[in-house]
Predict the structure.
Amino acid sequence: MKYLHTMIRVTDPAKTIAFFETLGLKEVRRTENEKGRFTLIFLSVPGDEGAEVELTHNWDPEEYGEGRNFGHLAYRVDNIYDTCQRLMNSGVTINRPPRDGHMAFVRTPDNISIELLQADRPLDPAEPWASMPNTGKW
């Protein structure tokens, strides 16, 4: 077996793509289906194209709730502090800051939880992360 992708439904493809691009993913392909009235957009981390996120956009409006029943996507990052700072600079809320230098959680525009894990070993605790409180759900 080989892992192919994880699918999440999105309401605003442009906002969701911008979110994932801030994380470092790039769009690798897109399919528009007029008859089915949906668009599939596949993203991956450059160099790791075998692990994709499929964004499904149904053209007819639909409520998806918070997406908490989905769980989360997880990504290993080279520097969790730099990644969280880049996300914050782009207006993303850090729901669970990397106080331990190892793990953080953020959410997509459709409230899908994204877990960020520090590669190799945890970084030494550092401010502002060490004393930053949780925000909302993660």
